[in-house]
Structure formats: C-alpha cells, structure tokens
User: What shape does this take?
Amino acid sequence: MYQMVKIRLRRVGAKNKPAYRVVVADSHSARNGAFIEVIGHYNPLTDPATIYINEEKALEWLKHGAQTTDTVCSLFRKLGIMDKFKLQSPELNSGSEPKSITRGRGSPSPQHPLSGEGQEVE
Assistant: This one.
C-alpha cells in the first residue's frame, strides 16, 4: 500500500526552548515519531532565525512527490528551494493549461453530453 511522505518539523530542545529538525517522515507517524531522513534544522529563537536545509536532499524528496507542511513550505520559500523546484519540474514549467476541468458532484462539465445544447465551450 502506498503511503504519503511529508517533509515536516520535528521538535527537539528543552522546555520553552524549541528547536526543530526538518525531517522526511510518513504522514501517519507522530510529530516526534519515526522518520525516514533528517534534511535540516531550524532554530526560531536566534535573531535572525537559524535555518539550514540540505538543498539537494530536499529537491530530491520533492521530485519523488513528498508534500511539505505549511511551515516547511515557507522555510523553503525563504531559502529559494521552492523556486528551484518549480523551475526543475517539467509539468509546472510547460506553461500549458490543464486539459480537463474537474467540477463538483452536482454540476456537469460543459462537454458532458447531457449538459444541454451540446456545444463545446473553450
């Protein structure tokens, strides 16, 4: 069975002094539970915040379909990793529109044979 992999923060550090490791983990594991790989660390208490992420490992996991949490995504944006991923990603770089539009359950698509007049909408 396929399980989703996430890139997220794992809390380490003392009470009231949080520091985080950026880890790749199964989406069903606990916040501080089992993880696959450590790819960086983040300390929000320093001024400015200390962020270190192994860019090569992060890009490799993103290419393989790992999803980021909101906080990790903002860290990646600050470091420019998300921009590099978008440039390397062929489906995002092609510039073409999606070929089909998905709609909710109740509304048929314009190309649907029962949608009324039978004319295609472009």
